[in-house]
Amino acid sequence: MLKLARQFVSAGYLEHASPQLTFHNMALSQKLVQRIKELGVNHFPDDVVEGAQVAALFSQLGYAYDYDRPVETSGNLLYQFLEETSLANEAKKNILDCLIPNQVASSSVVSLYQDAWNSLVLGDGLETYMSLYRTELQLMRDEPVSKASVRGWFYSQLKQAQLHTDLAKAKYQTILSENLANLDRQTNKKLAKQAAATELFGGITQASPSREVQTFFRTSFEYHTKLIGISDNKARIMISVNSILVSVLLSLLTYNYQKVASIVNPMVIVPILIFLIAAVGSLIFAILSSRPNLPSGQGNETERLFSFMDFVKLGKSEYQKQLDSMLRDGSSILASMSSALYYLGGILDRKYKYLTTSYNIFMVGFVVSVLMFVVVYFV
């Protein structure tokens, strides 16, 4: 009977087999036949072993005929084959029961078949068959299939799997238990990540940028921050010097000018006024340089999270929501840092332009005032 079953199944695969069937195929059936032989010979009567092997040969044939109704199709094909044999009705029923999903092991044939399936597909061949099953689903459905979904299917099968025969328990029970523990650990880890992902800042495990990228941004921000500090110190010096000069010159003009002009020369007011005007101009640009003026409202939502002038306008919950979204995307973080660095450069450019103008006005005013003073005093 086993020989006739091989011929029947081989003819069916020749006519209907598809290369897309990487899991449910003749190769799996053949391995099930070998596993049944391993578990059954010298432990079960020959007719029991042969019946389980016949069921194993037909178990995957339905997927080649009708992928949407494989179990029913395999059962019908097996029924057609058994009807042409002289087996007793009870023996036929035992073989057919092997192909019923979640069938209670009501006979030795069913027990042997289920032990072969569980020990092979869910036991020592688990990793291989999970990969083959995922590949088959992707090919048949023509769409991506996640590893998590395939892992979930095998996990559900493992939780229901039971070994019935003593030999199967002795050889494969430990493997099944280890596989179940591993899949349980992976499934719980995945669920924990999914749960964390629904919470703000939960499960953020983005890979860190390369050392070169980190060094670049850290060095750039430190360099620009130091330049801002230097410009503020220089502006503070100019503000102090020019403030003192303006106060002294105004005092000189309002209180002591008549005395100075009567003793020296009335035209001495000219260099004093020039110096006063230069000091006031230099003071104005020094103040503009040190005046707070951060850019706001530029870039997209995540790029504006670096500037307090923008995110302070958001509510706390909205700010946390946008920040959570940015931190989950490594590219958004880099884009935000590069945007912040760009606008920081703009601030520096403005500061140093005003500061340069302040120093130039002070220098030119000082030189012109001294020259005019010399001309007025000596000429």
Write down the domain tally. Answer: 2
Q: Secondary-structure element order, as H and E?
A: HHHHHHHHHHHHHHH
Number of β-strand runs? 0
**Largest sheet entry:** none
Measure the end-to-end span: 134 Å
What is the fold-level CATH name, i.e. the topology of the largest domain? Hypothetical protein af1432
- Spatial extent as radius of gyration: 43 Å
Strand content: under 5%
Average pLDDT, rounded to a whole number, is 82
Number of helices: 15
Return the CATH architecture of the largest domain: Orthogonal Bundle
Shape, principal axes of CA atoms: rod-shaped
* Poorly predicted parts: none
Structural class: mainly alpha
Binned, the helix content reads over 70%
CATH C-level category of the largest domain: Mainly Alpha
Could you characterize what this model shows?
With 379 residues, the chain is mostly helical. It folds into 2 domains: 2-197, Hypothetical protein af1432, CATH 1.10.3210; 214-300 and 345-378, no CATH class. The chain has helices at residues 2-16, 26-40, 46-58, 61-65, 70-83, 89-97, 108-124, 126-141, 147-160, 166-197, 211-263, 269-290, 308-311, 316-327, 330-378. It starts with a helix and ends with a helix. The mean pLDDT is 82.
